[in-house]
Amino acid sequence: MEAREQTTDQQLRVGLIGAGHWAGAVHAPGIANHPGTRLTSVWARRPAAAAEIAGLYCAEVADDPAALFDSVDAVAFAVPPDVQAELAESAARRGRHLILEKPLATSLAAAERLADAAYDNDLATLVLLTRRFAPDVRSWLGEIAELPGWQGGSVRWLSGGLLNDRFAGSRWRHAEDGGLLDIGPHAVDLIDAALGPVTGVAAAHRTPAGLWQLVLEHQSGASSTASLSLHTPVRPSINELTVFGEHGHREFRGTTMEPATSYAALLDDFVAMVHSGLHEHPCDVRRGLHLQRILASARELAHA
After folding, report:
1. What is the 3-state secondary structure of the chain?
2. End-to-end alpha-carbon separation of the chain, Å?
3. Which residues contact 63 (CB under 8 A, 6 or more apart)?
4. Tell me: the pLDDT tens digits for 85-115?
5. Which domains can be identified in the chain, with CATH numbers?
6. Least enclosed by CB within 10 Å: which of 122, 134, 173, 286?
7. What is the dihedral sign for C-alpha 37, 38, 39, 40?
8. How many angstroms separate the most distant Cα atoms in the chain?
9. Rounded to the nearest 5 degrees, what angle is found at the Cα of 167, between the Cα atoms of 108 and 270?
10. Is the pTM of this model over 0.90?
11. Is residue 85 exposed (0-12), middle (13-18) or buried (19+ Cβ within 10 Å)?
């Protein structure tokens, strides 16, 4: 989808929930600089942080989330998943289109309630699976889709993200299942897009050091493995995707696209979805719920 040039009256009024690093580095400038959107309101649990972001883009600081929801066409979320689930469900029930972080929630039940609210109100929704909006990733996945007969694959997502101070205050990431919930959606989404829908988790294990190993079953009959860690001291992070089968072996080693560029492409699709009324998308809330179900199965197996 491509966004058209928009007049001020046609631009979507977007409110931002959250004022952390990702909100300030990606969401706020992305929304403010996109021709189809205007950043009109910001709310965060820390009013001073919300005011700092809002002041950079001539946006208002909302007194509370409900006030923000009532003043915008769409809401972008940059908050922990347990906070997002409750607030995004409320925004959906008010008929606001949604840009959602991954995972949708910390529990499957909360993710299901959010997805139901968005579906019941016929909303445009996109989940920040940023790699899927990078042209080089889209091109590689397109080439893979044209070649049948893939029998298996693997994804490795290894990072030292939780070994530095950047996420020191992110309690949900430091929880026992935090690594799975944070990078799991990206990894499972990519191997699912390459080999076809994941239908089950055959095995899941978490080491004391926080390394997750998953064995996934696909609708196509293929199987794959995923190795996930936020505690591995590597720089840059390792993001590798591999498939193999009748056509040999294909490997993709991370995107060269910056998050801000992928976010702009996401906004292109989002604006087009809202204006067209066609709200289905490969990365919409239903995709987020599908990934949440896979991760819930992995957690259950690992803790059995």
Report:
1. CCCCCCCCCCCEEEEEECCCHHHHHHHHHHHHHCCCEEEEEEECCCHHHHHHHHHHCCCEECCCHHHHHCCCCEEEECCCHHHHHHHHHHHHHCCCEEEECCCCCCCHHHHHHHHHHHHHCCCCEEECCHHHHCHHHHHHHHHHHCCCCEEEEEEEEECCHHHCCCCCCCHHHHCCCHHHHHHHHHHHHHHHHHHCCEEEEEEEEECCCCCEEEEEEECCCCEEEEEEECCCCCCCCEEEEEEEECCEEEEEECCCCCHHHHHHHHHHHHHHHHHHCCCCCCCCHHHHHHHHHHHHHHHHHHCC
2. 43
3. 43
4. 999 999 999 999 999 999 999 999 999 999 9
5. 12-130+260-284 (3.40.50.720), 135-254 (3.30.360.10)
6. 122
7. negative
8. 58
9. 55
10. yes
11. buried
**Span 111-165, pLDDT tens digits:** 999 999 999 999 999 999 999 999 999 999 999 999 989 999 999 999 998 888 8
Evaluate whether 175 touches 196 at the Cβ level (below 8 Å).
no
Residue that is written with structure tokens 């995709």 in the block: 287
Retrieve residue 266's tokens. Answer: 């996401």
State the residue for tokens 């909303």: 123
At position 212, the amino acid (one-letter code) is W
Which residue type, as a one-letter code, is found at position 223?
S
Residue 39, token pair as written in the block: 């950043």
Give 199-208 pLDDT, tens digit per residue: 999 999 999 9
